[in-house]
Amino acid sequence: MPSLGPMAAVNRVFAAQLARLPVFGPDGESIGKIRDIVAGLRLDQLPPRVLGLVVELATRRRVFVPMLRVTSIEPNAVTLATGSVNMRRFHQRPNEVLVLGQLFDARATLRSDGTRVTVVDAAMEPTRTRDWVLSKLAIRERGGIGLTRRRSSMRVVAWNEISGLGLTDLTGQPQGAAQLLMLFDTMRAVDVAATLRDLPMKRRHEVVDAMDDERLADVLEELPEDDQRELVAYLADERAADVLEAMDPDDAADLLSELAPDDQGRLLGLMQPEESEPVKRLLEYSSDTAGGLMTSEPVVLTPDATVAEALAHIRNPDLTTPLASMVFVCRPPSATPTGRYIGCVHFQRLLREPPAELVAAAADTDLPTLSPSASLTEVTRYFAAYNLACAPVVDADEHLVGAVTVDDVLDHLLPEGWRETGLYDMGTG
């Protein structure tokens, strides 16, 4: 089975091979065993995306582990990346299918000739975007009954060669919400948010129930404050906490700051400590200061990192464009608040340096930094003066505490309620 590192070739893994495989953490600690694989079904013929694994812990509790946390799949074990496992009990979403529990033995039809078949296994493959999809199905033709029943050989076909395995076939999800989910797959989060606002409340809630946490987090970040509060109030507390964990810390802090203190404290208490701590730190700052505007998760490297390593970090597709424009060089620890701040390197400088060069040698040590208490006006002038998309925020003890991005500055400079007005209807008057 394949290693899942960034340079790994495309490989195919059959789901049956993963059943009951032990799962280990990065240091070799035992996590549990794989009980199932979760995939997100679609209405079209494209292969479903593999969302993650259902892992049974030693305590018999079953938890969900996203595929992005999986670093390697070997014949005898699966290894996870650094970070704690979310200990909340796994609950299946309406648009999700359990590959071992629901897809295996499902009855379907070959599109080419209408032959009735039974699914006996499913193969998943990684894509260039680091997603995994159910690309192939192992099927067996369904024979007759009694003495006329014949054994048929198993064969492997592409997902789109089979019908009868769609959203409504396997999950019974309402057709209207399923169609919207298929449409939303092709849209940017900001456009999904605008569409969601126009839906009747019942349909809006159906769609929210069917979205996975990461997608809902992206959409929630683009909604006006009133709509954010409404949806958080609708969600069960545990799921609301999961979605907050999937949001960027600065966006999660902005949302929580709009809630009543009791609601804020309850949701923070349900979040994993490593996810809630940066959000709590951001909540200490006023929203119209650099501290309130910043994200606590910029790209931070130690001085002995190479230019090649820095370029690999900013290629991460999960980074926003402004955050990918700048690498910050700090003494350990590299998580904010970091060790002593040394300087920053713009991605254009990285492209001009030899790959083996140390980032410390390329760092701009003269660029002024922002203090956490800098006002919105001061931050705006800073961006205008230095023509940046991302800027360091450094405290009085020379620790990098975060970075402000130009999109967050614009978000606070635009008139209140600009999201309700729409992208193209704000006018010039």
UniProtKB/TrEMBL annotation:
Keywords: CBS domain. Residues 363-421 form the CBS domain. InterPro entries: CBS_dom, CBS_dom_sf, Mg_transptr_MgtE_intracell_dom, MgtE_N_sf, MgtE_transporter, PRC_barrel-like_sf, SH3_actinomycetes. The keyword Repressor does not apply. GO terms for molecular function: magnesium ion transmembrane transporter activity. CDD domains: CBS_pair_Mg_transporter. One of its GO terms (cellular component) is membrane. SMART domains: CBS, MgtE_N. This is Mg/Co/Ni transporter MgtE with CBS domain. It comes from Saccharomonospora marina XMU15.
